[in-house]
Amino acid sequence: MKRTAILGAGCPIGQRVLASLQRNPAVDFVVGVERPPEDGASLESDLRAIPLTSDLRPLVDFLAQEGIDTVVDCGLVADRGGREQRPSGADVIRAMVVAAAISDERAAVRSWVLASSSAYYPVESYMPLLHREDRSVLPGRTDRAASIAEAEEYARSLAKRLPHVNVAILRLQELVGREVVGPLATLLARPLVPNVVGFDPAVQFLHVDDAVDAIAWAAEVELAGVFNVASEGLLRWSEAIREMGHFSLPILPWSLPGVDVLLERIGLPFVQRGLLDILRFGHAIDTMKLARAGWSAEYDQIRSLVSLR
User: Fold this and answer.
1) Distance CA 298, CA 20 (A)
2) Packing angle between helix 57-65 and helix 92-103, nearest 10 degrees?
């Protein structure tokens, strides 16, 4: 019934989505795709090496020859795919290439699931407690958020131009799990957890099992639209520290230009600016739209953090 390609199948989330869809009897064919390694090393035997460059022919030929009708991209944002434990922006060129390949007249794709990031939303003192998908983007955003917005725009543009293609943009919250730990969870894993003096923000995580299940489900039902994805509920940062059984390390609510780079070079722990803002103002998303569409998380915030112990 479905012939599915998982782009970014070499990253931890992509590997799990590939395995999940391989077990799904509704999927006739599923193949993992990854960029050829820059160092010339070979990929795992079950992955196809296809470059995602301005030359669309390799990807278009692959989609056409294999009769792919569903594309799932788990590699757009490195920390949301489990590749990085530090905040990362989106690969805008990748989004442009995939959108162009799907738009090619030889392709028969009818569903595109794009794993994006909740970092799309600003982290500021004046923001609402819960971000909703219909919130308009304000100017003055970080380079990271701007790259995510630009990458998503290619997907939204394709959905408008080709209404027969169901495009689902999933804005994944900060990942947490035993094997996959996102940037915010990495801070919580420290014996001394940084805690900005005078702040106790609302934070939120997405267990890796919930992330995989949401992506695989979106592909199965051919979901369309923009959706926030997080495990159930939210926490205060002080609650998260207590649940981990760790001690807090009070820090000042600002960073000095250039100091972060120096600390990283000499191997000392520090809090990057993007995460420092979250430790001041918090960052949580409203997941009711996805719940109304038919998906709900298995984990709540406490169970998600327990997996880190």
Assistant:
1) 16
2) 50
Flag whether 41 is in a domain. yes
pLDDT digits (tens, 9 = 90+) for 1-51: 599 999 999 999 999 999 999 999 999 999 999 998 876 666 776 789 998
- Structural domain boundaries enclosing 20: 2-177+204-231+285-298
Which SS3 state, helix, strand or coil, does residue 245 take? coil
The reported pLDDT for the residue numbered 253 is 72
0.90 surpassed by pTM: yes
CA distances from 264 to 153, 253, 269, 279 (A): 33, 19, 7, 19
Dihedral angle over CA of 102, 215, 139, 146, nearest 10: -60
- Tell me whether residue 141 is in a domain: yes
Q: Hey, is 85 helix, strand or coil?
A: coil
Q: Which percentage of the chain shows pLDDT scores above 90?
A: 72
Domain for residue 294, yes or no? yes
